TrEMBL record:
Residues 22-120 form the MaoC-like domain. SUPFAM superfamilies: Thioesterase/thiol ester dehydrase-isomerase. This is Dehydratase. Gene3D superfamilies: Hotdog Thioesterase. Pfam families: MaoC_dehydratas. InterPro entries: HotDog_dom_sf, MaoC-like_dom.
């Protein structure tokens, strides 16, 4: 990862997209173990169906983790100043998620040069699943 410079980044610039493999049961089980989030709606098809869902679906925080990976592929995690998301759709089994980001603002705060990013995950149909924003410090 190269060190990005504040004066080289412009409003409208996009982060390199992060395209992921289709969501599968193994991914959900591994994330449940890693995060200690064993909510049955994400790992037990019978429970999910009793709750009115056709099948299990991805943890919201898994999608946030993917956006975190998008960010840390762009800058070192120590440069992250703010990161927030809103869940706007369910990520179903088989969805092919792509994470994207775009610079929307450049500013200075607390003696640092920073950029604000808009982030989102979309499925293969172009439907947003998670939207958010982040602020990172640049030199």
């Amino acid at each position: 990862m190269s060190q990005l410079k504040f004066n080289e980044v412009q409003v409208g610039d996009t982060l390199p997209p992060l395209a992921l493999e289709p969501v599968n049961r193994t991914t959900l089980a591994l994330f449940a173990g890693a995060s200690n989030d064993h909510n049955a709606i994400h790992i037990d098809i019978d429970f999910a169906r009793k709750a009115g869902m056709p099948d299990v679906f991805a943890h919201g925080m898994l999608s946030m983790a993917w956006l975190g990976r998008l960010l840390t592929l762009w800058v070192d995690q120590r440069q992250l100043r703010q990161f927030a998301v809103r869940f706007v759709g369910i990520t179903q089994l088989g969805h092919r998620i792509t994470c994207t980001g775009r610079v929307v603002e450049k500013f200075e705060a607390d003696g640092e040069k920073r950029v604000k990013l808009e982030l989102q995950t979309t499925n293969q149909y172009g439907e947003p699943r998670v939207v958010g924003d982040a602020v990172v410090a640049l030199q």
